[in-house]
């Protein structure tokens, strides 16, 4: 607690929301800088991600993943892009053969590593999605509350990169909360590809409503040229 909030503890919450809200706007609309994420995790962003409203969406996502695991009939390999401090891990530990959690924030990844030291299936790395190698393939590539931090100019590139990182039969899952940037990003994504499923969930408040989309690599239909013989 800093000096101001020590003297006025009731300021702690509003100050947190103000500071992290400003950085949120910068990340979403101006420049998605690592330094803003380090700042947010430094002032207690993990606590915010673990509030009950937020936790509800991890349960929804783990239910979606669980259905995917039962269809596959085996544990799966997952890439969780922008995994934060590994908040989803406790709900999906029994579903994964390999979980690769990656995040721009070094602080978040350090925290994730200290939280889950004895889980050989969990691997964490501090990396920008843009720098990940495409040669690694996964059954599921997951972006929960991450895609709308990417600059609009990168949406197509990152979407197709994520699809290329899927194993055959794999699924790309993208979830985003409501808000103007999410609307623009969804519009762009839905124009690129029709999702297999699009689900809305959450509460009455705008800040607790989310949408999650399932995408699969589309099979390229060969162009038929000339006359076809039957
Ligand atoms: C809103 S938080 C969501 C964290 C977690 N996925 C969740 O649902 O609780 C967004 C996360 O995305 C990470 N992030 C933003 N841009 C990224 C990028 N280019 N590559 C990897 N992670 C990124 C941030 O550091 C942050 O931890």
Could you explain the architecture of this structure?
This protein has 230 residues and is of the alpha/beta class. Mean pLDDT is 89; it is low at 220-224 and 226-230. α7 (106-115) links the parallel β2 (96-103) and β3. The chain folds into two domains: 3-49, no CATH class; 52-215, Vaccinia Virus protein VP39 (Rossmann fold, 3-Layer(aba) Sandwich), CATH 3.40.50.150. 42% of the residues lie in helices and 22% in strands. The longest helix has 21 residues, at 52-72. It is built from nine helices and seven strands. 30% of the residues are buried. The protein has a seven-stranded mixed β-sheet. The protein is globular and about 55 Å long. Residues 32, 37, 49, 81-84, 87, 102-105, 108, 128-129, 144-146, 149 line the site of S-adenosylmethionine.
